[in-house]
Amino acid sequence: MRAPPPERPPAALRLKGPEAFAPVADAAALLDSDGGVLELHPAGRHEYAWGPCFGAEGRPTALYGRWEMDHGLRLTSLRDAWLAGGGAVIGADGGVVLDGLAAHAHEIAADPARFALTLRLYGLLRAEDGALSALPGPVRTVEEPVFHLMCQADNAFTHFLIDTLPKLALWEALPAPRPRLLVSQEAWRRWRGFLLAVSGQAEDAFLVHAPRTLLRLRQVLVASFPRWLDARSVAPFRRATAAMPAGQRRILVVRRDAWAWDRMLLNEREVVALLRRRGFEPVVPSTLDVAGQLALYRSASLVAGALGGGLLNAIFSAPGTGVLSLVSPDYTRPLIDSSTHLTGLRIAHAVGESFSASRDRNNSPYLVDLAAVERALDALEDSAGRPTQPTGGPFP
Predict the structure, then answer these.
(1) What is the 3-class SS of 113-157, one letter each residue?
(2) Residue 163 DSSP code
(3) Residue 1 pLDDT > 60, yes or no?
(4) Is a pLDDT exceeding 70 seen at residue 388?
(5) What average pLDDT does the segment 13-40 reach?
(6) Would you call 32 helix, strand, or coil by DSSP?
(7) Which residues of 301-340 are buried (b: 16+ CB within 10 A; e: fewer)?
(8) Same domain, 215 and 257
(9) Which residues form the Glycosyltransferase 61 catalytic domain (predicted)?
(10) Which of 119, 179, 239, 371 has a Cα-to-Cα distance from 52 of 20 to 30 A?
(11) pLDDT at 149 exceeding the cut of 60
């Protein structure tokens, strides 16, 4: 019988990258390992092409910047580990695994203040001399293996949708019986219905992690962020609505919740009026339960809205569905564009003009030219008879 892990995490911590772990051949070997890593998809630069983009006066334009995923898809196994209050995994040797930051850690670390804040959100304290330690909290011991299904920003639906739920694909790569799914208390409170619907699991498959609590874990499986890079990473989303009938509705997603202040579309009334004339009905998905939301997106042949979680929910729509993205140049995310070959969705963008805020450029208010909306919708209607078919198999 193994000795229990110490009462507290090691005092001196250090960040530990995937290269520090020993490769294993398959998922069964991973489950038997301590400090093993299973590479499911090699790291590499993933190029993408934007869908048609239109700007001022409806003229074709371009969205600049490239969002390249170079972190690969992998699972790491650690035994006698710790979980900090914000989700950081701490090995018995004091090595900290933050696999979700692997693709962007060098950018964050370049700004000491931002790096310290990010680490604190994960439950770590960074001293002025760079030393790391775990923030204190009550201790809970978990004897059964768990799968780390968390994201530091999973209180925001967009991050939950692109950073948390796709990890289910890596969990499904494990042989049964699979570990319980470790989720944050906030994600469980806000998005429990989506977790159950997309995973296909009952509530007892989940273990809810309370904030500011330290977990002593006998074994934890840590996943990188799959995003929507591979056919298997979108499969759980598509299965959730596969049995629902596809329809021909045109829906315009509007926000009426606390997040509506982010990336506010200043001429929303004019956009709504225009799209109503083109057969769209405004909908507020947050007023529906999860089953109602999934059925709503499945019933649509065209989905329009500001780029964000509501629009990204189009991943639940049938292949061939058109997506009209009203996008701020300060907030460009090619998630749908880069995965159309996996989802079968078609996308076009009406690119607006942003009033860039100095303190929060990412969420600045913006306007969209109505001519750009018209041209983007025309492009989707013209391509309706040529839907993109999903392709590609699961990762090895």
Answers:
(1) HHHHHHHHHCCEEECCCCCEEECCCCEEEECCCEEECCCCCCCCH
(2) I
(3) no
(4) no
(5) 91
(6) coil
(7) bbbbbbbbbbbbbbbbbbbbbbbbbbbbbbbbbbbbbbbb
(8) no
(9) 157-324
(10) 239
(11) yes
* pTM for this prediction: 0.90
Among 161, 102, 155, CA closest to 333: 161
Residue with tokens 């950073």: 163
Tokens (6 digits) for 148: 């780390």
Q: Which amino acid is at 269?
A: R
Evaluate if residue 284 carries a pLDDT over 90.
yes
- Written as six digits, the tokens of 62 are 């371009």
* Residue at token pair 């914000």: 86
> Which residue range(s) make up the domain with 211?
14-46+71-227
Q: Cα(43)–Cα(48) distance, rounded to whole angstroms?
A: 16
| 285 and 216 in a common domain | no
Q: What is the mean pLDDT of residues 212-226?
A: 92
Q: Does residue 231 have a pLDDT over 50?
A: yes
Confidence band, pLDDT 50/70/90 cuts, at residue 283: very high
Closest by Cα among 306, 303, 296 to 271 = 306
Residue 221 sits in the same domain as residue 246 = no
Residue 216 to residue 90: CA distance in whole angstroms:
10
Which DSSP helix (H) or strand (E) runs through 190? helix 185-199
Which residue has better confidence, 28 or 1? 28
